[in-house]
Amino acid sequence: xxxxxxxxxxxxxxxxxxxxxxxxxxxxxxxxxxxxxxxxxxxxxxxxxxxxxxxxxxxxxxxxxxxxxxxxxxxxxxxxxxxxxxxxxxxxxxxxxxxxxxxxxxxxxxxxxxxxxxxxxxxxxxxxxxxxxxxxxxxxxxxxxx
Length: 146
Description:
Strand content: 35-45%
Number of helices: 1
Number of strands: 8
CATH superfamily of the largest domain: predicted glycosyltransferase like domains
Order of helices and strands: EEEEEEEEH
Structural class: mainly beta
Helix content: 10-25%
Largest sheet: 6 strands, antiparallel, barrel
Radius of gyration: 17 Å
Number of domains: 2
CATH topology of the largest domain: Thrombin, subunit H
Oligomer: single chain
């Protein structure tokens, strides 16, 4: 069994089985075995948008790693990588978005890690890069609204 989808975690009541002790459907997760994260949702500074961005991660310990950006916001990116990079590591990300004329080279710090899903916060965006990321996110918002 893989890791839960983004924004979900295993139901504590049924342990992810989806069934209560009497084998009926779990009342907490409605039989799915998953529940949405509650922590931090209200604290989000910027909205998140699903995306599909190839990313190269440059890391002193692990070398260049190819990954996939799956969720983006003005403040960071959620990355799926083939190996775990510990929380607190500083990474150089290289990725292209249609609203920026060149490949972005951005420094980011790993803020959270679940399985191979890394939440990274951008720490070096220039004003122009931040504007490009904002425009890209706005375009994703319009796509999801239609």
